Amino acid sequence: MTENRPDDATPPLRAALQEEVRFRVLRLLQNNPEMSQRELAAALGVSLGRVNYVLKALVEKGLVKFANFSAAPDKRRYAYVLTPRGLAEKAALTGRFLRRKTAEFEALKAEIEALRGELSESADEAGRRQGHAPGLPDSDTI
């Protein structure tokens, strides 16, 4: 028997989540190339191992390159610089991210409106049961 865990997400959901992490890593690195892996993990709310895995994949794909961070007292620190391919990939990911988030936003708005309608219907029904006019507060609450 297998457990239902977040890691067992359906492939499209898993792909979207992985893409979102890549997008957020590229976005953070573009603005803060000197961020450490630990700082990236904290900013993203993911494990250090996950950040390490994502960074290795981005480097292997040629989207990010390591550069010595010359201003750092610890010369072992690296800056993670987006390559031209990395900048192009970030732009493509940004477009997909915006489309996905816009669709989520529209779905949320529709759900909120449906819930408001249900709430209004429930309040009207409760008022009718108590002998009050629909949609009007009872006299005790005025």
Characteristic key phrases:
142 residues; mainly alpha; Arc Repressor Mutant, subunit A; 4 helices; 62% helix; disordered N terminus
Give your account of this protein's structure.
By secondary structure, the protein is mostly helical. It has a single domain (10-130), classed as Winged helix-like DNA-binding domain superfamily/Winged helix DNA-binding domain (Arc Repressor Mutant, subunit A, Orthogonal Bundle), CATH 1.10.10. The protein contains four helices and two strands, in the order αααββα. Strands 1-2 form a two-stranded antiparallel ribbon. Helix 1 packs across helix 4 and helix 2 crosses helix 3. The longest helix is centred in the C-terminal third of the chain and has 46 residues, at 84-129. It is elongated, with a radius of gyration of 24 Å. The model is unreliable at 1-5 (pLDDT under 50).
